[in-house]
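This part of the workshop introduces the protein records we will be handling. A learned vocabulary of local backbone shapes supplies the integers on the structure line. Getting from the letters to the tokens is the skill we practise here. As an example, a complete record with its sequence and its structure tokens follows.
=====
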Amino acid sequence: MAFVDLIVVALLAVIVALVLQRRRTAATPDQPVIDSEARRLADEVTELRARIHILERAITDDHGSTDLTQEIERLRDR
């Protein structure tokens, strides 16, 4: 019976080690997911900043309503 007990203890040790390892990796999300999400958000922020810049320029410039219409159309095309 000592041999069977040794095998059971070894299996329990492996199972405990695997559970602890999975808990540790589950606590920190996978890096590629974070990188792709961060990249998507950074691209969105860049696009929104460009739109804000166009809107600010269109509103503050005194070139008439024709230029304002063209600026709005350029915004829609993005």
